[in-house]
Specification:
This protein is α/β, with parallel strands linked by helices. It has one domain: Glucose-6-phosphate isomerase like protein, domain 1 (Rossmann fold), CATH 3.40.50.10490. It is built from seven helices and five strands; from the N terminus they run ααβαβαβαββαα.
Length: 201
């Protein structure tokens, strides 16, 4: 045994380093949430927007889809925008025509050009933009947006987005707090799920 190594812990491998980096990102998010006011404001705005469009393209599509899955259990009209193309602007226009006031955008790297284009359409139509992004300096953010940062990990071949996912769940909680019917809607869903035998538990 070499001198000086007694009691030393082996260095972390690359997988452990990636996980520890994500833990650090979650700690950063926890520190940011010490001031809950931005998330609470976002929750109120998400709750009042009828319908609620949620935008997430390419790498961010999973975050948008996960948010919408749960939001639809308590919000009466959630509209997932997870595909680009020529109809994306039409779908934003349709949401505005139906009464939408705000749009939630998950903006994660690499940032597709279509996200910037869609946000231009949304802002021009009068929608407020609430954005979950990987930092304060993101190419699709503008000064009037409500920016909620959550770091993305880059230690592995493909980016990891544990902090943006957690922030999405926090936004869901804030939205539920602002929706007076949230608990009753959840109870109704549970009752229907039991009737239909949707879950094994």
């Amino acid at each position: 045994e070499r001198a000086g190594t007694e009691g030393a812990t082996p260095s972390a491998n690359s997988y452990q380093q990636a996980v520890r980096a994500e833990i650090a990102h979650l700690r950063q998010l926890a520190d940011l949430l010490a001031d809950p006011a931005p998330v609470e404001e976002a929750g109120r705005r998400l709750a009042r927007s009828r319908p609620l469009p949620v935008l997430g393209l390419r790498a961010a599509a999973a975050q948008a889809r996960g948010f919408c899955y749960f939001a639809a259990k308590v919000h009466p009209d959630v509209r997932l925008l997870d595909e680009g193309g020529t109809m994306l602007a039409d779908r934003i226009d349709a949401a505005v025509a139906a009464g939408a006031t705000d749009l939630l955008c998950f903006a994660l790297p690499r940032h597709p050009a279509e996200v910037a284009e869609a946000l231009e359409v949304a802002r021009a139509a009068g929608l407020g933009v609430i954005m979950v992004a990987d930092g304060a300096f993101v190419p699709v953010v503008q000064s009037g947006d409500l920016l909620l940062p959550a770091a993305v990990g880059r230690a592995l071949t493909f980016d990891t987005a544990c902090a943006p996912m957690m922030l999405g769940r926090v936004l869901l909680e804030a939205m539920c707090d602002a929706l007076p019917q949230a608990q009753s809607r959840l109870e109704e869903f549970d009752a229907r799920a039991a009737e239909r035998g949707l879950f094994l538990e």
